[in-house]
Amino acid sequence: MANLYNSNITTRYLEPVNHNNGRTEFRLDNDAVYLSNLRLINVGAVTNADKAATQMRGVSSVIRSIALYSGNQLLDQVTDMNLWETYTRTLHSNENQTLQGVLSRGSGGIFTDTEQTSGGPDGFRSVNSALLKNRVNEIGGAFPTATDLTKASWVSVQSILSFLKNSVHLPTGIVKDMRLVILYNNLAQFNLGAGNNDATSMTPNKPLLVADEVNPSDMRDMMVSDYSGVSYTPVEQERVIVKEIQGVNTNVEPVEQQSNFLLTGFNNKYVEKLICYQQLTNPATWQQGTQNDTRTGAFGCPPQFNPVVQWRVNGANKYPGIGLEGHNRALAMIVDHVGDSSFVPGGNTIGVVGNANVYSANLGQLPYHNGYTCMPIEDNISELQLSFTRSGVEGDGKTSQQLFMNIFGIVRKQLSLRSGAGQGFLITYV
Predict the structure, then answer these.
(1) Three-state SS string across the chain, please?
(2) 137-159 pLDDT, tens per residue?
(3) What pTM was estimated for this model as a whole?
């Protein structure tokens, strides 16, 4: 790939063909060849008051979804960036979190600090916006009250969309009328994800799309003639509701709840893996006044007490026994099947103490956002069931309240060319 960057490449800065407070659309020229490393600059928003961005998403949290089309044919999309990007940013190495913070105007990762223990167990502290601002050239972690390019962010579209990640180049003479469509969070969604939740106005910046175009040359001709399509693994999403656990405050023992769900969104698709992402629904548990949880806002994934997850695929359980038990087994599955993470130590667990047969929460020392689970499936789905068990604990509403259980599935798709010159292409699940 590095050898492509020579006189045969022209970097173009594309203005959107349409931009308003709800969406932005870019179009790529037909009969051109672009490298797949599309990126956005000047991503951000102007608010009525200086609002902090949450640490994990940074200023790009203004974006709700990103989709790539060929005409009206959907190629790839991520529909809920609030959740997906909050999760994927934990997968960067601790070293890489510094770079991501500069680009996104957010922060992540951890460092050891024997002088300061707030925000984590003794000796560990989650990096916050203020610390990053002091450490990385005053980058800022807030939305401005007026247009301020120094507080805008850079977004790699390639890192978000699998179609781009698995493509070396985009021949728009074959895949014609390519459009990149960005949808923005409305004010209510924005306030859920911002560090402060009392903004009364929010206007997204007009971004630019940066695209590297291959100039006319023998190399470009070869790239077009050799193009045979692409196989890729987009992310799709389904959501179910885990009901509130009743009777927790009147019991001295934790109250166990088992929920069973039949999921249909992945039927007749080959699924590589599934990721469970539980989300709180009671604002009181992530807000203090006008201040959201500064790390994730409303989009954290709080661990539950005594969790057990079991997937049943085509009539057979995927985990042995009752299922995947405990926080660290779940973390091991994430690391083994998704990749290394930069969770704060203990951030995937819940602190509960027992005293005279009374269980209560002791959560003040942990960031408490990393309760994700992962299950490798590697099968064609005809029937998919989820069993989720947890226990409600007195004194901690996070363990007993209603949850949104978001299921992200990594599926397989393929763009293949129709036979004959100029016959177009097909998008199929494989």
Answers:
(1) CHHHCCCCEEEEEECCCEECCCEEEEECCCCCEEECCCEEEEECEEECCCEEECCCCHHHHHEEEEEEEECCEEEEEECCHHHHHHHHHHHCCHHHHHHHHHHHCCCCCEEECCCCCCCCCCCEEECCHHHHHHHCCCCCCEECCCCCHHHCEEEECCCCCHHHHCCCEEECCCCCCEEEEEEECCHHHHHHHECECCCCCEEECCCEEEEEEECCCHHHHHHHHCCCCEEECCEEEEEEEECCCCCHHHCCCCEEEEEEEEECCCCCCEEEEEEEEEEECCHHHCEECCEECCCCHHHCECCCEEEEEEEEECCEECCCCCCEECHHHHHHHHHHHCCCCCCCCCCCCCCEEEECCEEEECCCCCCCCECCEEEEEEEECCCEEEEEEEEEECCEHHHCCCEEEEEEEEECEEEEECCCCCCCEEEEEC
(2) 334 467 888 887 778 889 999 99
(3) 0.87
